[in-house]
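> Could you send the THAP domain-containing protein 5 prediction when you get a chance?

Sure thing. Input:
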Amino acid sequence: MPRYCAVRVCRNRGGTASRQDNKRISFYPFPLQDKSRLQKWVSNMKREQWTPSRHQYLCSEHFTADCFDIRWGIRYLKNTAIPTIFPSSEDVCILQHLENIKLRIQF
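Output:
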């Protein structure tokens, strides 16, 4: 089953490369068992009235470099990591506007 990033305007999905630096994108499940950390993740996403499921993920582009440990060439998310890289509300509005224009052009 393909993995998609749960951030509303993020288009990253499993098997694609990062748009920024052409590195592979990895996906991380929400910390459903750690309620305080889960609340920080969801709050930083600006989706307070939303509850993620065990089938939803965030991609690696929403975490800073210090959120990862690299062991034997494999990138692991630290169990204390909090995602902090998200588009601003202005960016979200612009992207939604561009999507609407794109849809109008298609029809």
